[in-house]
Amino acid sequence: MPWQILVADDDPHIREVICFALDRAGMVTVAAEDGAAALRCFARKAPDLIVLDVGMPEIDGLEVCRQLRRTSDVPILFLSA
Predict the structure, then answer these.
(1) Residues 62, 38: contact at Cβ < 8 Å?
(2) pLDDT at position 68, please?
(3) What pLDDT is recorded for position 57?
(4) Which of 5, 28, 33, 39 has a CA 20 to 30 Å removed from the CA of 54?
């Protein structure tokens, strides 16, 4: 079964490029445009990995990580400008 990866970044171009590359590698991606959307996606179905931008509107990536760490040890890969 392919890995499910949540990609959270407020830049649509970066989101598309990352999702495209991961999809081509045989993984399933779910995209979120900000931290609040990332938390909602995680609540629906916990992914195997999260690619998380640090500087996002609504809730930044560091706060998303803090909230997720309260209940999950899912691997997180941070992106930063």
Answers:
(1) no
(2) 97
(3) 86
(4) 28
